[in-house]
Amino acid sequence: MTPAEAAARTLQDQASLWSVREVCAVDVVTAACDALVAGLDSPGLRILAACTRGEADYDVPDLLPPALDELGLSLYSRDSVAGREAAARALARRMLAGELTPRELVFRIHQRFGHTLASVERLAQLDDEYDFLEREDQTLDEIDAEVHAEARRLIDRPAES
Question: Residue 159: what pLDDT?
């Protein structure tokens, strides 16, 4: 993956996470700045990247849709299944990149989506399994390995339209 492709994926992930309130608007602006540095460019991306920390909460909702559209990226509505799955995939990528522990991933998935999103149901269940670890016949390493396998499965799953 080229630096520009990686920056586009990061911007898409940050937008998806922002749409489910997992990250703040400043994180989206930071991803836009990183995308410019990596070689992506569009008028909307430049405007988005120029937001200050003080402006981000107010301006990102209006500036993000056209910036993503110009780059051929998607902004999902807050309540869409596709948007929630995109956010879950972004969290899974973070865990596989070492930015989250397996326990943190399943906690965030469970907290954010509960047991209402079929594609991440097993991850939500694994959060419960961490809670009952001392009472069960499983080890931490076994649960961590299953979380890694589920995260890979989620990332490899075709995105809903």
Answer: 67
